[in-house]
Amino acid sequence: MKFIAKIAAVFLLMGLVSCKTESLTTSVASPNSAIKVDVDINEKGKPLYQVTFNNKTVIAPSFLGFDFKNVEALNDNFKIVKTITNTFNETWQMPWGEQLDVVNHYNELKVELEETSEEKRKLNVVFRVYDDGIGFRYEFPEQPGLKEVFITEENTEFNLTEDYKTFWIPGDWDIYEHLYSTTKLSEIDTENYKVNSALAQTSIPNKAVNTPVTMVGKDGLHLSFHEAALVDYSGMTLGVDTEKLSLKSILVGSDNQDYKVKQTVPFNTPWRTIQITDNAPDLIESNLIVNLNEPNKLGDVSWFTPMKYTGVWWEMHLGKSSWDYGMEQVDGQWKDTGKAHGRHGATTENVKRFIDFSAKNNIKGVLVEGWNTGWERWIGFEDREGVFDFVTPYPDYNLDEVTRYAKEKGVEIIMHHETSAATQTYEKQQDTAYALMQKYRMHAVKSGYVGKIIPKGEYHHGQYMVNQYNNAAIKAAKYQVAVNAHEPIKATGLRRTYPNIISREGLRGQEFNAWSPDGGNPPEHLPIVAFTRMLAGPIDFTPGIFDIKFDKYKKDNQVNTTLAQQLALYVVIYSPVQMAADLVEHYEANPKPLQFIKDVGVDWEKTKVLNGEIGDYVTIARKERNTENWFVGSITDENAREITIDFDFLDDKATYTATIYKDAKDAHWNDNPTALAIETQTITKDSKLTLRLAEGGGVAISLQKQ
Question: Which of 241, 319, 321, 435 falls 20 to 30 Å from 97 in CA-CA distance?
């Protein structure tokens, strides 16, 4: 990564500014002074903080602390012994991302606490205050008598001052694949939340929500709560007190031990984050989460190239083909006993079809799922350890030939590793599996963790699995492999530190439209996702479905958007790997809308959020790196609406050819979803364009500089 600038006052280059006299500094404001954090100790020695935005209290006094196994809690009897303030301002560059240059400008307050009791245990709390929000974390400094801690709960409070309109999913310890609910904070009800019947691994043990959870106030204040730099710690859910309008951290636990986090002192917790803006678009433009992560530890990662990709994925969800071949396990080994069912999708011939199509259409990757042995027993069995082999292909998939052919066509094969949550099997084979990828010059893998975690009693979002996900990605980097994780732990900005962490699922994705018994994702789903899940990081959502109804395969299911919205998603939902998810034949039958997928970028120099309201609509413009081209995407919920796009973000004195892919006059997500109108016109910086989005619709615009 190229580190281009570090801008700081000269006195700060000499070190931190310390205030350790009687007049302790216990407050810190954002660089623009709009956000202020105050820290104090109450009469019982309990540490607390409060946050104001434009002189209005956003977080009322809220307590901080910990409960431990077998020792006294670390919640009270504190005194402030020292405070340290610091200002930091740098500009760093993303090797790939939503933008090239990222400003990282904050004011910091470090509060050093010590117990007044005989133990005199020490705890530091560090606050970083940005113009777009705050992050704070606990630091356990090295100290006598405290070498190892077993945390049973983290007692971080967020006491709110208003009954906010809240966009939330339940605090599931295993999956994030839930529909968002929109209620008042006081009306959050996770006990009666209707869970999709297909989600067998769901675990919702508390009255809590998962993060990011986003809120809107009566005066337009927008808040989003999340965490950053989640390393060697449990994921945080937020318990909800609907009467006191309060949130409190509830760490994800394990059935295998009576604590939630085990750590050796010294250590730091993840950052607890609150993005604070006075409008919805600024939430998406915020870089708070990535900025709170450490700089790139991998160095040059140019071996990974952002790309669009196709693959044998959607056809499996439609039932056109299957992941498994029809082998049998004999004496612990997979054998071809002549019972192949003939519906296997990852065949040499079929994958070559996708390679040919990709090569013709400016698509650089092909994802191959179901290529390796083990899919016959991949889910629904307790004895899943040892089932998958990550180097042995099925008999009808010639790995040598496929990779040779792909290279000849200028296409990269994307590997697939479905672990079926059998973590020890995957961990044992990782070096061999990544080495195989390195041999064939495959630089990206999609990993999966479907099912209940083995060992039994662990959860996808607990400390055990946080380490599994992170360690897999760190090891993959040694083999020049980038990871796109499905059924993952939440994104927390680690892509800055380990930029081979390229994307992940972590939400209710496109596949629910193919088979979900509850009707798939409603039109409001993605206009909520853009302001919730997407704030955490890139999403592998798999857009681009052209055959919206797919009655040939499943008459009871469909995609609940228009075709124009499917195109717009390539701009709205960010990922450096974007799938053209539909079948080859559906693209070949629709060459005109396919042109947008051929043209649209995946790696961006600039991102501008032009308008939007959570759950209603959003419009985003992105400038492609290494070209002068811009792309615009706009999507709406179940309501039709008119939007006006002001093109003042374009270059001065430049003219662009705009190709506009919009909903036809009679388009409707259910009644007429494929009705599409395409027009071309000349656009400049002074242009404005008013467009109608149909119900569940959208618009996609390609702007190519003349």
Answer: 435
Give the span between the Cα atoms of 702 and 279, in whole angstroms.
26
pTM for the whole thing? 0.96
Residues 6 or more apart whose Cβ sits within 8 Å of residue 560? 513, 519, 520, 521, 522, 523, 525, 669, 670, 696
The average pLDDT across 10-16 equals 30
Cα angle, residue 684 at apex, residues 678 and 687 outer, rounded to 5°: 75
Give catalytic status of residue 511 as yes or no: yes
What is the distance in angstroms between the CA of the first residue and the CA of the last residue of the chain?
A: 31
Q: Report the C-alpha gap between 594 and 584 in whole angstroms.
A: 11
DSSP 645: E
Contact 295, 3 (CB under 8 A): yes
d(CA 576, CA 491): 14
How far is the C-alpha of 168 from the C-alpha of 172, rounded, in Å? 11
Using alpha carbons, select from 386, 383, 431, 393 the residue that is nearest to residue 413. Answer: 393
DSSP secondary structure string, 181-200?
EEEEGGG--STT----TT-T
Instruction: State residue 145's pLDDT score.
Output: 87
Residue 114 has pLDDT above 50, yes or no: yes
Contact 110/81 with Cβ under 8 angstroms?
A: no
* Whole-angstrom distance, CA of residue 281 vs CA of residue 620: 9
Residue 55's nearest CA partner among 213, 216, 248, 278 is 278
- What is the average pLDDT value for the chain, to the nearest integer? 95
The mean per-residue pLDDT over the stretch 120-147 comes to 97
Per the CB < 8 A criterion, the answer to whether 504 and 537 are in contact is yes
Return the structure tokens found at 93. 């560059």
Count CB-CB contacts under 10 A for residue 256.
Answer: 11
Q: Report the interhelical angle of 348-360 vs 399-409 (nearest 10°).
A: 10
Give the distance, in angstroms, between the CA of residue 151 and the centroid of all CA atoms in the same chain: 26
CA distance 282 to 367: 34
How far apart (Å, rounded) are the C-alpha atoms in residues 675 and 666?
7
DSSP state of 255: S
Task: Dump the DSSP string for 116-170.
Answer: SSTT--EEEEEEEEETTEEEEEEEE---TT-SEEEEEEE--EEEESS--EEEE-B
Note whether 190 and 170 are within 8 A (CB). Answer: yes
Bridge-partner residues for 18, per DSSP? Answer: 84
The answer to whether 445 touches 437, Cβ cutoff 8 Å, is yes
Per-residue pLDDT at 201: 86
Q: Which of 112, 154, 418, 511 is catalytic?
A: 511
Tell me the three state secondary structure of residue 307: strand
Distances 567 to 285, 578, 671 between C-alpha atoms, Å: 21, 11, 18
Model pLDDT for residues 404-459, shown as the tens digit of each residue:
999 999 999 999 999 999 999 999 999 999 999 999 999 999 999 999 999 999 99
Whole-angstrom distance, CA of residue 631 vs CA of residue 621: 6
